[in-house]
Amino acid sequence: MAQLKSVDAVIVGAGFSGLYLLHLLRGQGFTTRVFERAAGVGGTWYWNRYPGARCDVESMQYSYSFDEELQQEWSWPEKYSAQPDILDYINHVAEKYQLSKDITFNTSVCRAHFDEISKQWKIVTDTGEVVKASHFIMATGCISTANLPNIPGTGDFGGKIYHTGKWPHEKVDFSGQSVGIIGTGSSGIQSIPVIAAEARHLTVFQRTPHWTVPARNVPMTDEYEKIWKKDYAERRAQMRYSPSGSLRSVAPIDISALDVSEEDREQAYRERWAAGGMTLLKSYNDLLTNDAANETAAKWVRQRIAGIVKDPKTADLLSPKTYPIGTKRLCLDTDYYEAFNRQNVELVDIVKEPIERITLNGLKIGDRTFAFDSIVFATGFDAMTGTLLRVDIQGRGGLTLQKKWEAGPRTYLGLMSEGFPNMYTITGPGSPSVKSNMMSSIEQHVELVVDTLMHLRENSIETIEPHRSAEDDWVEHVQEVANQTLFPKANSWYMGTNIPGKPQLFMPYIGGVGAYRRICEEVVADGYRGFAFEQKISEAAAAE
Ligand SMILES: Cc1cc2nc3c(=O)[nH]c(=O)nc-3n(C[C@H](O)[C@H](O)[C@H](O)COP(=O)(O)OP(=O)(O)OC[C@H]3O[C@@H](n4cnc5c(N)ncnc54)[C@H](O)[C@@H]3O)c2cc1C
User: Fold this and answer.
1) Number of helices (H) and strands (E), helices first, in the chain?
2) 372 Cβ contact list (under 8 Å, min separation 6)
3) CB 109 near ligand 1, within 6 Å
4) What is the pLDDT of residue 53?
5) Least confident interval from 249-253, 282-286, 434-438
6) What pLDDT, in 10s, does the model give residues 76-111?
7) From CA 51, how far away is CA 378, in angstroms rounded?
8) Is the pLDDT of residue 57 over 70?
9) CA angle 147–149–152, rounded 5-degree value
């Protein structure tokens, strides 16, 4: 099929967001081009193939809900899906709806400029292709640009270097190897137990200990699958209006942790620790808003760590003490703390002993040298804004997105930014995004964007763009809501603090998935309150 050079919409990215966009827009008769820098579909689950990579939302909930046939026909092998199973699912979706034929792979969008005369975006790729589009949709993901810290000597290393977020497609065999892993965030926590079981020796370099709770992953049972599939549509409807875009297996307790006895708290925490998953943070209603309440849960988890890790010094080092539990993304693990009881695993505190440089044979810290066959960077991502700001995006009057967001991202509803007409960010900063089951948030944003494009088409509207005042109010509201919580107390990637020089402010909207959805519904019902429209000039009027 000939590739169109002028389309209704250009979509960047072929992860869950881009695929659903393509499916809906195509179904509504919009012409589209999709560009994806990877060689296949899947986004996060295409790139993050590291050992132990797994979803922390239950499989029955981390999947598309838009097609009853799709959700009934698919069976997940485990309660929490591993990366290969999610990628299988995404490939199945791409095949079922014949999506890949309309995606240009191995192609990055590097420039997008808005032309104020034609009201079109001119999009340029790294293969030199130029496409014009009325609408420019960044479905580029919140966690899609790997962060490789600038450690001197990285180029000198004679062994293999890996980043968890850009893992090779073939199996990496660590058996017999001495491996160093830098970083103990989510990807580190998932991969450390798996690499430790395979490698001859694993040295873990930790800057900040992360809070993690057991996932208690198990094979999917027919019974559990049937319970979900019996009333899937109804459950999905509840998820959409829930605080996190997902349903919990253990109900939240709607009182303060400080209004109950120590015995009651002990029982609640024990029950949730045993059930596994994120429910621990929902034990009481003020764990993420009140320091003293939070500390009851933090102290309880520190006691669990001390109970699992045999060496008291290592247990102490693994116990977070400098920020409240849950204010960096809580991790779900499988035998993370247990891995540190292995004879072949060593933990090094790089706050006390900073990494000096990477050498030909390994790594140097003060007087100590480490020899490695492989070094794994589990150092996370330039999240939320990193991927968007790496594209040269120019809106009205040559305003660049880099300039507009120099003090931090500015959006209305996390969806659009003033000065950039007809440009949309799926799960952009200022929307619930990474503070939710992202499948719920992705579906909501994709449907909202497609409904908006249909509204514009039906009403002969050429452009849509937020009013500055609506954007200002939303930016303020996002911070106001965050400041009512303990989240700003942590140096987290939610705050941008993992990237040197990045503006520090809380980027996702923490007001809740259901509350956010209602706000968007009200905005639309109120004639797209806060947005400015430019009407299409009819051909006759233009000729006058
Ligand atoms: C290790 C890891 C674990 C995660 N676990 C969970 C979880 O448990 N629960 C949860 O809800 N979410 C999780 N997430 C978040 C996850 O990113 C989302 O759930 C979801 O997969 C995002 O889909 P997306 O399509 O919006 O973005 P992505 O999947 O990130 O896809 C974006 C695509 O855009 C492409 N792209 C970016 N820039 C360009 C460009 N300039 N030109 C061309 N292509 C470009 C990228 O190559 C990528 O394929 C996790 C993320 C990571 C990294």
Assistant:
1) 17, 20
2) 159, 177, 178, 179, 180, 203, 361, 362, 363
3) yes
4) 97
5) 249-253
6) 999 999 999 999 999 999 999 999 999 999 999 999
7) 11
8) yes
9) 155
Beta carbon of 384 within 6 Å of any ligand 1 atom: no
Atom 6 of ligand 1 has which residue's CA nearest to it?
55
Report the percent of the chain where pLDDT is more than 90.
92
Is any ligand 1 atom within 6 A of the Cβ of residue 81? no
Distance (angstroms) between ligand 1 centre and the Cα of 270 equals 33
pTM for this model (two decimals): 0.96
φ/ψ of residue 397, rounded to 5 = 60, 25
Q: 140 CA to middle of ligand 1, Å?
A: 7
SS3 112: strand
Question: Per-residue DSSP letters for 488-502?
Answer: GGS--TTTTTTSTT-
415 Cβ closer than 6 Å to some ligand 1 atom: no
Average pLDDT over residues 411-436: 97
Q: How confident is the model at residue 543 (pLDDT cuts 50, 70, 90)?
A: low
CA-nearest residue, atom 31 of ligand 1:
43
Give the C-alpha separation, 206 to 322, whole Å: 14
Average confidence (pLDDT) over 499-510: 91
Q: CB–CB of 427/433 below 8 Å?
A: yes
Q: 116: which DSSP letter?
A: T
Q: With a 6 A CB cut-off, is 50 part of the ligand 1 pocket?
A: no
Question: d(Cα 118, Cα 121) in Å, to the nearest integer?
Answer: 9
Q: Which residues, including other chains, have CB under 8 Å from residue 219's CB and lie 6 or more apart?
A: 77, 78, 79
CA of 16 to the centre of ligand 1 (A): 8
* Tens of pLDDT, residues 301-354: 999 999 999 999 999 999 999 999 999 989 999 999 999 999 999 999 999 999
Q: What's the length of the chain?
A: 544
Position 119 scores a pLDDT of: 97
The answer to whether residues 328 and 492 touch, using CB atoms and an 8 Å cutoff, is yes
Query: Which residue is closest in CA terms to ligand 1's atom 42?
Result: 108
Is the minimum distance from the CB of 37 to ligand 1 under 6 angstroms?
yes
For residue 462, report the distance from its CA to the centre of ligand 1, in Å: 30
Q: Report the atom number in ligand 1 closest to the C-alpha of 17.
A: 25
Residue 452 CB–ligand 1 contact under 6 Å: no
Question: In this predicted structure, what is the pLDDT of residue 2?
Answer: 61
Residue 301, pLDDT score? 97
